[in-house]
Amino acid sequence: MEKLKSYKVFDFEVKELINFLRSTKYAFSKVNELRYFTRDQAHKQYLEDNGFDTSRSGEFNFKKSRMLSIEKTLYQQTLVRAISALEVFLVDIFRDVFVVTKIPFMDQLKVHQYSQAKLLSISNISELYNEIINKECRSLSSGGFSEINKAYKKRLGVGSGDVHDFMRFPRA
Questions:
Q1: Could you give the 3-state DSSP secondary structure of residue 40?
Q2: Domain limits at 159?
Q3: In this structure, which of 1, 47, 68, 121 has its CB flanked by the most CB atoms within 10 Å?
């Protein structure tokens, strides 16, 4: 799986997200340390004498409750971004399967309607394939994890429960 472009993109996204989270948590800890450091007037004066701005920002107050609230928001946004990256990855894998084999997608009940002009404008079969897989992937993307789960079960016969049953990601 490491050779698939979709996996490489997902792996990169997750690593970037981990780096972002770690660096932001580090910055929060340094701000917290600075908050305590500047309580001592001599330390505060030393920083100001050496060009550091120790005044409170009008945009942000470094009170503990405010810092905890911002850290909570950071974790929530990170989680949302991780879920989004996973969803994109699962849709991309679905597309990759289509490229390798069309067999799971041969559904007699699924009907596509194209105008005569559209059919006559297609110059090769790959354009038609792209139309079909794009429609499939659009429905997965708009349906979220429940649609992805259904598609993986129905089309690919993967998973007895959730999509998570077969996806094992290394922990960072």
A1: coil
A2: 5-165
A3: 47
